[in-house]
Amino acid sequence: MHDGAMIGPPSGMEWTHLLTAGEFIDASGPIYMTRDGLDADEPIRFGMRIGRHHCNGLDVCHGGMLATFLDTAMANGLLETGGIARNLPTINMALDYLAPAQLGDWVESRVAVLRRTRKLGFVQAILRTDRGIVIRGNAVFRIRPLVVEGPSSIVMEPPSARSPAPP
Question: Exposed (0-12), middle (13-18) or buried (19+): which is 63, by Cβ within 10 Å?
Answer without folding.
Answer: middle
